[in-house]
Amino acid sequence: MLDKKKVFPVLICIIALLLVGGCGRKASESAEEKKAVPVRVESLSARNLSEYRYFTGTVEAKGQVVVTAKMAGKIKEVLVKAGDKVRAGQVLVKLDEKDVISQVQQARAAYDAAEANYNRTKAQLDQELKRLESSVKQAEENYKNVSQNYERMKKLYEEGAVSQKDFEAIQLQYNVTKEQYESAKEQLELTKASTMPETLAATKSQVEQARAALSAAQSALENTLVTSPVDGTIGSVDAKVGQFISPGSIVAVVGDTGSFFVKINVTEDVINSVKVGQTAEVSVDSIGATLKATVTSASPYKDIKTGLYPVELRIENPPSDLKPGMFARVKIAVITYENVLAVPEECVLNKEDKKIVYTIEQNRAKANEVAVGPTVEGYTIIKEGLKEGLTVVVEGQEYLEDGSLVEVVVRGE
């Protein structure tokens, strides 16, 4: 099939020769008809455009992990061998748990004691609170009674009906009961606002510390069971019964060769455009394959060594000849423009500091001033100046002026 873009310039030359030759043409042919400019056109329609970036990475087997011990201990049992199929969470190696069980028991006893102390302290404080509330109530009653008597005696004293000695006696009683009432209230408020909360907080803290110690001991007991983190096949086992291992010691290697992924590192101007679930294209030149992939993780943190952001992609339907370690190139969209009007970038001309795109109306060229957006994959996005459905000149536009007579030689989609 002939390439339209290669044939089109030849057509222009032939038509131009026919126009200037004039031989065999009728004398009545108008000057405008002789000047008709051959063009190729397309109908303007909305499209989706994506801006891509390319990154390199290496194919890896998903789930291939090195299983290490989380704590020091003596190996009690080795439950798997190389080639065994295992499930995530399955126990591979058991460490001697006697000492750890003792630690758990001690931690639980300390926790139970701390919790009992908290409950006992709370009960005592509740009882003290009730006692103080009762004291305040009694002091208040005494104060009210004496106050009434005091007011009565004060009136009689002012009238001269009682002696100064009798009045001073009731006044002293009044002051004492008032002070007792205020002191009782102050003690109650202090207990509520300070003594009780602080005492309970202290005993509660002891409970939390004991709970944390118990949790740590229980975690240590769980860590005596070295488990597989993934489904897969045991590649190797580096553990023997009776062997003493330290935290971080390699126990086994587990791999899942049924799935593959590619890890790439992207720059900071790209990371915010990469989303989990996003599709991408992975090319593996060594096997001549172009494969689909899905982003499974995009780290929000830079890698300290590279200064880039790690991204992982899962390869969909990997072929049988794909192997770990193969070099891969990843093509991933970083910006997508949906349902935009766009023309081939060569359609946009610069004339007198204006962006011009030519359209065709009744065999005449119309110069349209446009506002443009970015150019993506050879297409320039038109923000203003054109509408969907217009006939746009995509070849021959450099020979046009506004109002030029045209001849459509090729009409595209």
> Main beta sheet: strand number and arrangement?
6 strands, antiparallel, barrel
Shape: flat
Q: In terms of per-residue confidence, which ranges show pLDDT below 50 for 5 or more consecutive residues?
A: 1-8, 10-29
Mean pLDDT: 88
Series of H and E elements: HHEEEEEEHHEEEEEHEEEEEEEEEEE
Round the Cα radius of gyration to an integer and report it: 45 Å
Give the amount of beta strand, in percent: 35-45%
Count of strand segments: 22
Explain this structure to me?
The protein is α+β, with helices and mostly antiparallel strands and 413 residues long. The chain has 4 domains: 4-49 and 338-411, conserved putative lor/sdh protein from methanococcus maripaludis s2 fold; 53-64 and 255-336, Beta Barrel (Elongation Factor Tu (Ef-tu), domain 3); 69-95 and 224-247, RNA polymerase II/Efflux pump adaptor protein, barrel-sandwich hybrid domain (OB fold (Dihydrolipoamide Acetyltransferase, E2P)); 99-222. Helices cover 36% and strands 35% of the residues. The protein has helices spanning 4-21, 31-34, 98-159, 164-222, 268-271; strands at 37-43, 46-61, 65-68, 73-78, 85-86, 91-95, 225-227, 232-237, 244-245, 250-255, 260-266, 279-284, 289-298, 309-315, 327-344, 349-351, 354-361, 364-369, 371-376, 379-384, 391-395, 406-411. The strands form 5 sheets. The protein has a 6-stranded antiparallel barrel. The longest helix has 62 residues, at 98-159. The protein is flat. The model is unreliable at 1-8 and 10-29 (pLDDT under 50).
